From TrEMBL:
Residue ranges of domain Heterokaryon incompatibility in the record: 59-215
Name of this protein: Heterokaryon incompatibility domain-containing protein
Top-level division of the source organism's lineage: Eukaryota
InterPro entries: HET (IPR010730), HetReg/Transcr_Mod (IPR052895)
Length: 624
């Protein structure tokens, strides 16, 4: 709606006087929206209430995306024509009742967005504001040509989910099984689905906004509006996770549908009965888990990554303060995550892109141990997480204490006990996204298994002391796990297939001279294209993307798969509080964290035996 000449922006002086909030009483503003037909101007009044007051007015909290409509709109606030974001005006116009007032909480008007102190106070109350609402009302925007087809498809898929899970009562059991690992179905979604309409519907801006996750998760229930159409929030969320369950039967690539994936992630929180984090089935997630889980979602203010992802009351060090420097917010959040989990698990998400030969570490003002969880994922440049079942620090836990790690008066430092196992002396190239292709995996196997070098001819022989089994196990990062369903009729355990895969590759290396690259490449290609070994090839692609092979000297180990920022002179360590070995870079004082790594032969507590044998001593690492 165009701006009327007599319209004024919201009068912030009135917010400071007539509508002033008492922080001690946890006061909030509510918006009482007058009834009206669609073509009349939106009129509303502001009412103050205290969250301490059990008798406060019943209200609905509105969840919407500010940016899905550009420009400005005009509404009446206590009789004054007032400029608001166009998306706010659109939501109010479509959500008001025809015949009675509707009491709403809507952040754009109920929080003085220009008052930083008030924003701090009100953001800290978000948990309670959405908890105490009667329900959350989601506004996706006006309907378009795909809306009807999308909602019909959602209902169709939801009906299938109900039929296969006893109307949702066994949804978690079907999705995760007895092993509590997400299961992928081998049967398709029902016929008649309009996937084009569904994908368009789930690409709406709302599905990419981080704040909406807890806006819908904290309320007791929710309803979703798209124009004049509506659907239950829980039905939408369960449909999304069901689509992920059927991922391998879809006629499109789900991994490229961010909105659809985000909706399935939301279901873990929104579904209070059957979701991954539901009280009856799951455990309360750690802050680090939430930061990882919601990385794909977007925020307009970088600090909101922390405050929107948590959805819970935070310790005093993380009380929302928008004037607080971003580096301090990220640093303090990492420290809280360490305190909460009791270990250094969050360091497994440290990843620094290679910027240049001379400067491939992050901004010096941010501690190197701050993880990449605070930026949106980039599949082209980031590695996939290594498996979580490793226990490299087994037997060392007794020398770890959170108090010791966080005990420095300089909050930019972590102080960890651990073992230094070797220094990188040969580092391979970054195995970029090209490693997703069969020819690149073929080239990688030829270089490491047949020619036995890491990077160039000058390093020829640096891998000669390792068996084919050792090398391939390193290339898969210690795992042949594949999330896709097993081949029909395939019943052998993964380990058996992996051993067969290694034996075939070893035979190639034994029967072909290293200089006969054409013959070897042809045989490697045949092996990689064998459907029986698809899991093993997938595991190589998964583990090697955006990592480097390395060898070490002067220590207790020899071979590893490390971060893309690894370079010669870095050291491999097992820290007492970290289940993953870490690559560290010596600094003038202390070390900088490069990232986690897989190291052949020390992933299940072997380092502790080295102490018992007197081969190595523990030392202290100051991480900067």
């Amino acid at each position: 709606m165009s701006r009327a000449p007599e319209s004024q922006p919201i009068d912030r002086r009135r917010y400071g006087a007539q509508y002033c909030l008492d922080e001690c009483r946890k006061q909030i503003r509510l918006l009482v929206v007058s009834p009206g037909s669609h073509d009349t101007i939106v009129a509303c009044d502001i009412k103050i209430c205290s969250l301490f007051d059990e008798g406060h007015p019943r209200y609905e909290a509105v969840s919407y995306a500010w940016s899905h409509v550009k420009g400005e709109g005009v509404i009446l606030v206590s009789g004054d024509r007032t400029i608001v974001p166009a998306a706010t005006e659109e939501a109010l116009r479509n959500l008001r009742y025809l015949d009675r007032p509707r009491t709403l909480w809507l952040d754009a008007i109920c929080i003085d967005q220009e008052n930083t102190e008030e924003r701090n106070q009100q953001v800290a109350l978000m948990h309670e504001i959405y908890k105490k609402t009667t329900r959350t009302v989601v506004w996706l925007g006006k309907a378009d040509e795909s809306t009807v087809g999308a909602i019909d498809t959602i209902k169709l898929i939801h009906n299938q989910m109900c039929a296969e899970t006893d109307y949702g009562k066994k949804l978690r059991e079907v999705l995760y099984g007895q092993a509590n690992i997400f299961q992928y179905s081998t049967t398709p979604l029902p016929e008649g689905c309009d996937f084009t309409a569904l994908r368009s519907f789930l690409r709406r801006t709302w599905f990419g906004r981080l704040w909406v996750v807890h806006e819908v998760a904290l309320g007791p229930c929710g309803i979703v509006y798209c124009g004049e159409h509506e659907i239950s929030l829980i039905d939408l969320m369960r449909t999304a996770i069901w689509i992920q369950h059927k991922q391998h039967q879809l006629p499109f690539d789900l991994d490229k549908e961010d909105g659809m994936l985000n909706a399935s992630y939301m279901s873990a929180h929104v579904d209070h009965d059957q979701g991954w984090f539901s009280a009856d089935h799951g455990k309360k997630p750690f802050l680090a888990d939430l930061l990882r889980y919601f990385r794909p979602f977007g925020v307009s203010e970088a600090r909101d990554i922390v405050w929107a992802a948590s959805g819970q009351p935070l310790p005093s060090s993380l009380t929302p303060r928008y004037q607080k420097p971003l580096r301090e917010v990220l640093r303090d959040t990492t420290r809280v995550a360490i305190q909460e989990s009791g270990d250094l698990w969050i360091l497994r998400y440290v990843d620094h892109e290679v910027v240049s030969v001379s400067s491939n570490m992050p901004d010096e003002t941010v501690p190197s141990w701050v993880p990449s969880l605070f930026r949106k994922p980039n599949q082209e440049k980031e590695p996939n997480p290594l498996r979580s079942a490793f226990r490299a620090n087994k037997g060392l836990e007794g020398s770890h204490s959170v108090e010791g790690v966080l005990g420095s008066s300089n909050e930019d430092l972590l102080i960890a006990n651990g073992l230094k196992l070797g220094t990188l002396n040969a580092v391979g190239p970054v195995l970029g996204n090209e490693s997703q292709s069969i020819p690149r995996v073929q080239e990688l196997l030829h270089r490491t298994l047949a020619q036995k070098f890491v990077q160039a001819d000058s390093f020829a022989g640096s891998l000669s002391s390792f068996t084919t089994h050792d090398l391939v196990l390193t290339l898969v990062g210690g795992s042949t796990f594949n999330p896709s369903p097993a081949q029909k009729g395939e019943c052998e355990p993964v380990a058996s297939i992996f051993n067969e895969f290694v034996a075939v590759l070893d035979a190639v290396c034994q029967t072909n001279h290293p200089d006969r690259s054409d013959d070897e490449s042809y045989t490697f290609a045949n092996t990689l294209e064998n459907a029986r070994f698809a899991r093993c090839v997938w595991a190589i692609r998964y583990a090697c993307t955006n990592r480097r092979l390395f060898t070490t000297q002067g220590g207790q180990i020899g071979l590893g798969l490390g971060p893309q920022a690894s370079q010669e002179g870095d050291v491999v360590c097992v820290l007492a509080g970290s289940r993953m070995p870490m690559v560290l870079r010596p600094a003038a004082t202390g070390f900088r964290v490069v990232g986690p790594c897989y190291v052949h032969g020390i992933m299940q507590g072997e380092a502790a035996a080295m102490i018992a044998e007197g081969r190595i001593d523990q030392e202290q690492f100051v991480l900067r």
